[in-house]
Amino acid sequence: MSGSTPKAGNRFIVPAAIIVVLLVVGVAAGVYLTRGSSSSSSTSSTGSDSNALINVVAGENFWGSLVSQLGGVHVNVTSVVSDPNTDPHDYQSNPANAEAISNAKFVIVNGADYDTWALALMASANVPNQVVLNVQELLNQSVDANPHFWYSPYYVNYTVAVMYKDLVKIDPTDKAYFTTQYATLNSSLWTSYMKQETVIKQMFGGAPVASTESIFVYMANATGLDVVSPPGFMQAVAEGNDPSAQDVATMQNLMMEGNTSVRVLVYNQQTVTPLTQTIKALASQYQIPVIGVTETIQPPNYSFQAWMQGEVASLQNALNSEALGQ
Predict the structure, then answer these.
(1) CA 267, CA 272: separation in Å to the nearest integer?
(2) Backbone phi, then psi, for 180, in 5-degree steps?
(3) CB–CB of 60/38 below 8 Å?
(4) Nearest to 63 by CA among 151, 124, 174
(5) If you average pLDDT over residues 221-239, what whole number do you get?
(6) Nearest-angstrom CA–CA distance, 158 and 154
(7) Going by CATH, does the domain composed of 205-295 fall within 3.30.70.360?
């Protein structure tokens, strides 16, 4: 894969080579300053001739939404994991998934042990010349890294840039079209939610927040918020394990200290357990605002950026209400 991995200190960048391309075509791209089982997959296509389309399989609908917007009329995208009622970590593949991957020219997986089922299906299919984008490998992250890369605007921008390059590699004759789509998507990502994350950082940077699991850590980094939940607690919940007694006690104490210690509790609505429900109830009891986030796009028919816009707005509203004592 081409391109260098974005550094932690960078601010929402698009690789320089791509910026040059966008300047040549005269399109202004938005750049932020500095990719449970489901019984069915979701497929999006806007082309009229399916034989002329690039078949793309995305392990999850967040990456699927982004590549669908990039590819537009030239792609047929199947997003496998999209069920809002299940935990994506627990997804079990089926024959339809295997068939989709065996027919795909382009496969996008999250990696970091998030979609191992897809890696197994690709290994079994062994499709010649199939283009594979593994986000974890692209970002030079370890297999045991926090897998929720799509909650980092830095990683989203970098992944979208490589999706664009891969589409051009597969279909170079439509490069101009993909370039325009890429510029449009960059602008939309910035105006819909990435810009607002910088506003939250300016207004609330350093504010202590808690999360029931590690899904929120990347967004907290982007917004400058201080996640005070025990890392062991968040990781255990994300992996479907029981946190240590010490971490549970620490988390409960944070909730009982009220909004002097925690301004907002972020609650993953797709990894609900009796323990996380208890933590949520404690937060409400001690007047800590609670906002829900999800692993996959909800509702599933939303675009990636519309979904993120809603979650960022909920976060800002909760921080505002706490600041105003509401």
Answers:
(1) 9
(2) -65, -40
(3) no
(4) 151
(5) 96
(6) 6
(7) no
Per residue in 213-222, pLDDT tens? Answer: 999 999 999 9
CA distances (Å), 281 to each of 165, 173, 255, 265, 286, in order? Answer: 46, 56, 9, 11, 9
**Residues carrying CATH 3.40.50.1980, the chain:** 16-191, 205-295
List Cβ neighbours of 117 (8 Å cut-off, separation of 6 or more): 91, 92, 93, 97
- Through-space distance between the first and last CA atoms of the chain, rounded to whole angstroms: 49
CATH 3.40.50.1980 fits 16-191, yes or no: yes
pLDDT in tens, 116-149: 999 999 999 999 999 999 999 999 999 999 999 9
Alpha carbon of residue 249 to chain centroid? 30
Asked if residues 204 and 224 have their Cβ atoms less than 8 Å apart, the reply is yes
Of the candidates 95, 102, 161, the residue with the CA atom closest to the CA atom of residue 133: 161
Q: What is the pLDDT of residues 275-296, one digit of tens each?
A: 999 999 999 999 999 999 999 9
Question: Could you tell me the two tokens for 5?
Answer: 């991995």
Q: Write out the two tokens for 84.
A: 């809002």
In three-state form (DSSP H/G/I as H, E/B as E, the rest C), the secondary structure along the chain is: CCCCCCCCCCCCCCCHHHHHHHHHHCCCCCCCCCCCCCCCCEEEECCCCHHHCEEEEEEEHHHHHHHHHHHHHHEEEEEEECCCCCCHHHCCCCHHHHHHHHCCCEEEECCCCCCHHHHHHHHHHCCCCCEEEEHHHHCCCCCCCCCCHHHCHHHHHHHHHHHHHHHHHHCHHHHHHHHHHHHHHHHHHHHHHHHHHHHHHHHHCCCEEEECCHHHHHHHHHHCCEECCCHHHHHHHHCCCCCCHHHHHHHHHHHHCHHHCCCCEEEECCCCCHHHHHHHHHHHHCCCCEEEECCCCCCCCCCHHHHHHHHHHHHHHHHHHHHCCC
